[in-house]
Design brief:
Elements (H helix, E strand, L loop, with lengths): L6 E3 L9 E3 L6 E4 L5 E7 L2 E6 L2 E6 L4 E5 L10 E6 L5 E5 L4 E4 L5 E4 L1 H4 L4 E7 L2 E6 L2 E6 L4 E6 L10 E7 L2 E6 L2 E6 L4 H4 L9 E4 L6 E5 L2 E5 L3 E4 L2 E6 L2 E4 L2 E5 L4 E6 L5 E5 L4 E4 L6 E3 L9 E6 L5 E7 L9 E4 L5 E4 L12 E2 L2 E4 L5 E4 L5 E5 L4 E6 L10 E2 L11 E6 L4 E6 L7 E5 L10 E4 L11 E6 L5 E5 L4 E5 L4 H4 L2 E6 L7 E4 L3 E6 L2 E6 L4 E5 L6 E6 L4 E6 L4 E5 L8 E4 L10 E7 L4 E6 L2 E6 L14 E3 L3 E2 L8 E6 L4 E5 L5 E5 L1 E4 L4 E5 L8 E8 L4 E9 L1
Parallel strand pairs: 60-67
Antiparallel strand pairs: 1-21, 2-11, 3-58, 4-5, 5-6, 6-7, 8-9, 9-10, 10-11, 12-13, 13-14, 14-15, 16-17, 17-18, 18-19, 20-21, 22-23, 23-24, 24-25, 26-27, 27-28, 28-29, 30-31, 31-32, 31-34, 32-33, 35-36, 36-37, 37-38, 38-39, 40-41, 41-42, 42-43, 44-45, 45-46, 46-47, 48-49, 49-50, 50-51, 52-53, ...
């Protein structure tokens, strides 16, 4: 058994924060994988779990649970620490540094003090009237009533690192478990209030060979451990990677690395893991695993929407793959289905990125992998099939693998459907043709069901096609990893009539994505945003948009959404002047991550889906696929509106026709407010009203008037 590296100490061991009410963020819905459980809290009969995908509430008696991931309550879904104060408030710390108070009435209040300085919160300890906050950048004292950080210790004694993992208090002494050992401070006689935290010499330190991750109070002493540990049924229970030891016996070997071990004092030991959710163990029988519905992987490399309203996501894949990697299917409501190597017919996933992804017009889903060619999910048979598209063997065809046939090396980075119903596939490093055209509904294509184009001998050969699209007027457009752009056309029968090259360009460094308006193609390139005019048959670079572009998606003929590798989303209205044409939407507005990999547009419901490095965001564009002509489906929320609810900032009025006017009146008919539109989309206008706190609670009416329709409705304002 390995040494626990326990430190035993006898009877001992920022700037002012900004209070922010819970950000509205109503236009976002975020998804992240809750497979990592970082902390746990026992409150009454409930168990609260801090997960990598939000805050999970478990009722262990009813065996039911709910996951909270609303960005207006949790702007960062990577929850790292939990605590409860004497007033029943649950305090939530996040990896990015948000400190969130969940009140007993379920209202959330967000403080961004530590977020502003990028403190990763690692532990929260209520003490007296304050909270002691541990982080990767030091220790802080936080006033929960004023919602401000009172003082920060960013240097601790003789330690070079300021990282603090945990804290404890015993006999008026504050102990910190640090990266380099243990530190302690006498806080008796109100010294916590008066101590100068800028003076690192106030701390006494003792070095340890490994970080102190856990502090336990036992027998009038504080013990520090370099691993998750707790006393369970009077025995020291601790974890070493995936193994859990109870006393002197190695009792459990869990599938994931253990993140915490905590006894609830009622006969159950709770154990969290990095990749396999969390477990409840009575010390004797096999532990019970609690799985949480949701995503399984964080880094979503590609996204595609099916005609059924499903969202499909692909991930990067390790070699060998982890269980949570592969392809995710989300029904748009609550059900997530993971398709990995164990799915029928899927076969191996290889290593690297699952890069190509398309939910096709026939209801099937195509996936391109880095090593193992192409996979196809056939909805009718509810299984996967494998196809050989390219490889170093020199095979020049396109065929389906037999079920018992071994994988051959091959790679496909891009797919698209054209308006004639054909499927186009980018074939990597294949000298007999970099583009494959396939009869889209052929499950087992024969020689007459596919054709290859642009072999190595062609001046328009592309070594690696990683962007494909079909324009509304039928052009097939390809972008290459080497910076090539290819524009081709066919007469509607490409398997017989072939294709003609309209234009070909080089030297754009890389071309990862393409999108279309009625008249143009917009390319994400290594040199910025490239625009191809189908009318003029010319390509130009839009110099107003910088490099770092990863993806593009057209909302309308004028509005282009641009994903970047570090700056979030850019909404670009090409019809406006340069000063007013671009608006940035990033993490501060509710986006799950500023590192965007791919996007997909749901025109029917008016949503932009964003695949990012830390999960997925769904952004409400405030307009639907059809123009709004009447008010019959107007949406008003929150209604009732409450001044006392920190989550209520504005009353939103959605699904109103363009050129609508909106006013609010009291019961006597007096005008209370003329509301200005906050979003003037082409097909729909959205209004936001922030009620003046001076108005009396009660019933009010809104009246909406447009050229085509008039409507009225009731709004309840509560204290």
């Amino acid at each position: 058994m390995k040494n626990n590296h326990c430190l035993r100490v006898g009877a001992l061991v920022l700037v002012l924060g900004a209070f922010l009410p819970a950000a509205s963020f109503q236009r976002f819905k975020n998804f992240a994988p809750p497979i990592s459980v970082n902390d746990i809290l026992f409150s009454g009969n409930m168990v609260w779990a801090a997960t990598s995908g939000g805050l999970f509430k478990l009722d262990p008696v009813k065996q039911t649970g709910t996951l909270e991931s609303n960005p207006s309550k949790l702007p960062d879904l990577e929850i790292t620490a939990l605590a409860e104060d004497e007033k029943g408030n649950i305090w939530i710390g996040s990896r990015r540094g948000y400190l969130i108070k969940k009140q007993p009435n379920d209202a959330y209040v967000i403080n961004s003090s530590y977020f502003a300085f990028q403190w990763e919160i690692t532990h929260i300890l209520p003490y007296g009237n304050n909270l002691i906050i541990a982080s990767d950048k030091g220790c802080s004292i936080f006033d929960p009533d004023k919602m401000v950080a009172l003082k920060n210790a960013e240097k601790i004694g003789s330690f070079k690192s300021a990282t603090v993992y945990t804290s404890a208090v015993l006999h008026d002494t504050l102990y910190l478990g640090c990266k380099e050992g243990m530190a302690w401070l006498d806080i008796g006689d109100n010294r916590l209030e008066t101590a100068n935290f800028y003076d690192q010499q106030i701390w006494t330190t003792r070095s340890a060979p490994e970080p102190i991750k856990t502090l336990l109070v036992r027998n009038n002493a504080v013990n520090g451990f370099n691993r998750p540990a707790d006393y369970f049924k009077n025995e020291l229970t601790y974890a070493d990677s995936t193994e859990v030891s109870y006393g002197r016996t190695r009792s459990l070997n869990l599938p994931g690395i253990v993140t915490f071990v905590k006894s609830d004092g009622k006969g159950t030991c709770w154990i969290g893991t990095q990749t396999d959710y969390f477990f409840a163990w009575d010390g004797e029988e096999n532990p019970i695993q609690y799985k949480i519905k949701g995503m399984t992987f964080a880094n979503a490399s590609n996204i595609s929407l099916s005609s059924r309203g499903e969202v499909w996501l692909s991930s990067n894949v390790s070699s060998p793959p982890f269980w949570y990697q592969g392809v995710l299917q989300y029904d748009g409501d609550s059900e997530w289905t993971l398709h990995n190597s164990s799915a029928e017919g899927m076969g191996k996933l290889g290593g690297g990125a699952v890069v190509g992804l398309l939910a096709d017009i026939y209801g099937d889903v195509w996936v391109g992998t880095t090593e193992t060619n192409v996979k196809r999910y056939n909805r009718e048979s509810d299984r996967w099939y494998r196809y050989f598209v390219s490889g170093r063997s020199g095979y020049s065809g396109f065929r389906r693998f037999k079920d018992d046939e071994d994988n051959s090396w091959g790679k496909a980075d891009a797919f698209c459907n054209d308006s004639s119903g054909y499927l186009w596939i980018g074939s990597w490093e294949h000298y007999s043709g970099c583009l494959i055209c396939v009869k889209g509904d052929a499950l087992d294509p024969g020689d007459g069901d596919y054709r290859r184009y642009y072999p190595q001998s062609s001046p328009h050969f592309v070594l690696n096609v990683n962007a494909l699209g079909a324009s509304p007027d039928g052009a097939i457009v390809a972008g290459g990893a080497g910076g090539e752009i290819l524009i081709a056309r066919h007469d509607g029968t490409p398997l017989d009539g072939g294709v003609e090259t309209e234009n070909f360009y080089r030297d754009f460094i890389t071309v990862p994505d393409v999108t279309f308006t009625r008249s143009n193609a917009y390319f994400a390139t290594g040199k910025g945003l490239a625009v191809y005019s189908f009318e003029q048959k010319q390509l130009s670079i839009d110099s107003s948009v910088t490099t770092g572009i990863t993806s593009v998606e057209a909302e309308s003929n004028n509005v282009i959404w641009i994903g970047t590798n570090n700056d979030g989303l850019i909404r670009y209205d090409v019809a406006k002047n340069e000063q007013d044409s671009k608006t940035t939407v990033d993490e501060t507005a509710g986006l799950i991550s500023n590192q965007i990999n791919d996007m997909a547009l749901d025109k029917v419901n008016g949503h932009l889906w964003i695949a990012a490095t830390e999960g997925v965001s769904r952004y409400d564009l405030a307009q639907t696929g059809a123009s709004i002509g009447t008010h019959e489906k107007v949406r008003v929320y929150p209604n009732p509106f409450s001044f006392s609810n920190p989550n209520h900032r504005e009353v939103f009025f959605k699904r109103l026709p363009a050129n609508t006017s909106l006013a609010v009146y009291d019961l006597g008919g007096a005008l209370v407010a003329e509301v200005e539109p906050s979003i003037k989309a082409d097909r729909e206008w959205t209004f936001g009203w922030s009620p003046d706190r001076r108005i009396m609670p009660g019933t009010y009416f809104y009246v909406a008037q447009s050229e085509t329709d008039n409507s009225a409705g009731k709004i309840i304002i509560n204290p």
